[in-house]
Amino acid sequence: MATLLHIDSSAFPGEASTSRAVTEAFRRAWLEEHPGGQVIYRDLAVEPVPHITADAHSAGLLDPAEHTEEQARAFAERLVLIAELEAADAVVIGAPMYNFTVPSTLKAWLDQVILMGRTAGSPESRVKGTPVTVVTSRGGSYAPGTPRAPHEHVLNYLESVLSVIFEMEATFIVADLTLAAEIPALQHLAPLGEQSRADAFEAAEKAARAA
Questions:
Q1: What pLDDT digit, counting tens, does each position of 99-150 carry?
Q2: Among residues 69, 87, 71, 100, which one has the least CA distance to residue 127?
Q3: So which cofactors does this thing need (predicted)?
Q4: Residue 142 labelled as part of a binding site
């Protein structure tokens, strides 16, 4: 049975979030392509995972037999998240831009599932080669050549983590100018924002059918 890991991190619910709407479109298309497939869903805004602690980190470097009670408890929480990632045949992640980068909830999840010798830095990693689709939404535009391009720290960060650390097969879908209609200085770009959103839905469905 095929398994999709679906992760949302937007602080906004439902259709108020472009990234949520697009990841949901991905999920629907993926299920159509994989009848009987199962979805593991994590809403990091509703149920955030703990930030990495010294106990959780150090436990990953030790033999489990050497764990303190605190390390064992923290590491057990990490292993649940890691097992979900390892079980996935495909992953879709909603990653809106907040203050030039990813939501802290998503960063916390990544810190928990990056485990050297298992999900990273291991030729036997079960996540290596797994297709992962990232849907990011941005109120303005940070595309190459735009004034704010140097401040884009979502795509470059996630490319490094997903493609370099995990060695996954990453695809990025971007919905730009999602707030153009609401910001007076950007209202003339609202049609471009609407087109970018439509393109994101189309790209998500295409990626889902290929995953």
A1: 999 999 999 999 999 999 999 999 999 999 999 999 999 988 888 989 899 9
A2: 87
A3: FMN
A4: no
User: Does 138 carry a binding-site annotation?
Assistant: yes
Q: pLDDT category, 170, cuts 50, 70, 90?
A: very high
Sign (positive or negative) of CA dihedral 151, 153, 154, 156: positive
The span from the CA of 30 to the CA of 18, in Å, is 18
Q: Read off the pLDDT band of 41 (50, 70, 90).
A: very high
Residue 97 assigned as binding residue: yes
Check the annotation: does 160 bind a ligand. no
Residue 98 annotated as binding?
yes
Minimal CA–CA distance to 154: which of 30, 19, 49?
Answer: 19
Q: Is 99 annotated as a binding residue?
A: yes
3-class SS string, the chain:
CCEEEEEECCCCCHHHCHHHHHHHHHHHHHHHHCCCCEEEEEECCCCCCCCCCHHHHHHCCCCHHHCCHHHHHHHHHHHHHHHHHHHCCEEEEECCCECCECCHHHHHHHHHHCCECCCECCCCCCCCCCEEEEEEECCCCCCCCCCCHHHCCCHHHHHHHHHHHCCCEEEEEEECCCCHHHCHHHHHHHHHHHHHHHHHHHHHHHHHHHC
